[in-house]
Structures are given as C-alpha cells and as structure tokens.
Specification:
Blueprint: E1 17-21, H1 27-36, E2 41-45, H2 48-56, E3 62-69, E4 73-74, H3 76-85, E5 88-96, E6 100-103, E7 114-117, H4 119-124, H5 126-129, E8 136-139, H6 143-153, E9 158-162, H7 164-169, E10 173-176, E11 186-193, E12 204-210, H8 217-227, E13 232-239, E14 247-254, H9 260-272, E15 275-282
Helix pairs in contact: 2-3, 8-9
C-alpha cells in the first residue's frame, strides 16, 4: 500500500507564512486572500520555482500557484515543478480573471506602442490584441508587476494588461475594460505544502504517474476508474525529460482517502504504473 494513504490530518492555518508568485494586486495574491483570509504573513516571489524553493528551504509553509486557466488550459511549468519537488496539493481556489488594458493617467489607446503582461494575459486576450498589430507585446513576470512597471516608468506609450485592482493600486487608468475573449475566464490556483493534509470533507484527489511505453497501458490504468465507480475530472500529460515520447500523467478525480473504494482504486492504478505519487486529497472547487 502507498505510504501516502496513511494518516488523516487536519491543519487550521493558525500560524503560517504563505508565498505566492507576483506582487500585491496580482491574481495569485487575490487567490491567497480568498483562501486564507486577509490577516496572514505573506512573501512575494518573482518566479514559480522561487515559491517551491522557499517551501523546500522552510521559508514558507504554503505556496499559492496557478495551475490551470479555463481559456488557455494547464500551466506546464507548475505541473513540472510539482513532479520535480514532490510537494502536496492541500487545497484549491478558483478566481475569475478580468483583464483590462491599462495606461498612465492622461494616456489613451492611441498613445500605446508597447504593452506588457504575463504570457497568459496575452493568450487570454489574443483576439483583442490581434486587432492592434502595431503594438509590441512584451512578456513580463506577471500582470500586477506589469502594472507596477507602467507606474514606475510613467510614459504614455507604454501600457499593460492587468486587473482593475492593479490599476487602482498603482494609480493607473483603465483604457479598455474586459478585453479577454472568454467572458467566463477563470484561473484555478493550487495550495501546496511539504506536508500532506487530508480532512473528512475532502472530495478531490490528484495523482501523478508514468506508465509502460507499450500499447494499452493507459487504457489499463484508466479502466480502474469505471471498475471502482469513480469520476475522473481531468487528465494532463507532460513529457518526461530525457525519455523522448514518454509522458507523465496528472489525473484529478473525485474521492476521499477515507473511502475503501478510493483506496482500492489508487492501489489498482499504482500496480499499473512505473512511477506513482499521490499529490493530494483536498476540498475541490472544480467538479
């Protein structure tokens, strides 16, 4: 039996430090506040990997990271880092993402020559940006830091794509609102930790596995969901570095580790796998 199936624990987040990628006003910071509450000790980091390293070095207890967007799909770097560091997912939070074109006070769309944002911001607004081909799109750390940059440089020809909150925070002007093409644009954030946390109301499980590189191996693994009457929510594949055309599979499904059928399902899948890890059992917001 997988050792990760043992020990149902409940942590109350009483005294902890929480890390996120970005700055105040970012969607990651919003997800942190909505999940943990306002009165928390937090640390901001420039890159996704910085958050993982801070957990590894015991500088923070939890990290808040985007894992999937309803418009652009999974965020590959975060999936890869979950595998690299082997941390647990202990929760998730969904945030409605509203992108706006932003500039300094007194500027207009006609002044713009350069637009800054995170790559995801550009992707989620691509239909709007296609109408403004003369703009130079410059990828930046995240949407909120893009807003801070525009504030600091204070020139009319530079703008950014960011949230209304970021515009307010840095004293900027919204030049055009709601420029994302999917009006139901939602990003799912995960809460990660070194420690596994499972409570009796958890209803979502995430695992990562690799399978033999032969015909039928994926089918043999997935058939156990039907055999154990379990609903699979998502499957995402990522290439295994150093093994061309072989993949890791990240799977989310309904369940709680207190359920005998779930324990059987996990053991059945693990027996089919070359590599298997339970990433977490937590309360889901996406079903």
């Amino acid at each position: 039996m997988n050792k990760d199936l043992n020990g149902i624990k409940n942590h109350k987040y009483k005294s902890c430090i929480i890390g996120f990628q970005g700055v105040e006003g970012s969607f990651s910071h919003q997800a942190l506040i909505e999940y943990f509450g306002e009165e928390r000790d937090t640390l901001a980091f420039g890159k996704f990997q910085d958050v993982f390293e801070a957990i590894e070095n015991n500088k923070i207890n939890y990290g808040v990271l985007p894992i999937e967007n309803s418009s652009t799909g999974g965020i590959a770097e975060v999936y890869d880092l979950l595998y690299k560091y082997g941390f647990y997912i202990v929760g998730e939070k969904c945030v409605k993402v509203d992108h706006n074109l932003i500039g300094i006070k007194g500027s207009s769309i006609h002044d713009l020559k350069e637009v800054y944002s995170h790559e995801q911001g550009f992707l989620q607004c691509r239909e709007y940006l296609d109408k403004h081909e003369k703009w130079t799109l410059i990828p930046y750390f995240n949407t909120a830091r893009s807003a801070k940059l525009i504030h600091d440089e204070n020139v009319k020809h530079k703008g950014c794509i960011a949230s209304k909150k970021a515009a307010e925070l840095y004293g900027l002007e919204i030049l055009e609102s709601h420029i994302h093409y999917n009006k139901n644009n939602i990003t799912r954030f995960i809460i990660i930790s070194k420690l596994k946390e499972v409570t009796r109301n958890c209803d979502k499980i995430s695992v990562i596995l690799s399978l033999p590189h032969k015909a039928g191996s994926l089918y043999k693994a997935l058939r156990h969901f039907e055999e154990n009457n379990c609903n699979m929510l998502k499957i995402e594949s990522r290439p295994i570095v150093g093994k061309s055309w072989e993949y890791l599979f990240y799977i989310d499904f309904h369940g709680n580790l207190n359920e005998k059928s779930i324990i059987k399902l996990i053991n059945d899948i693990e027996q089919e796998s070359l590599y298997f890890k339970l990433l977490g059992n937590y309360k889901g917001e996406v079903s």
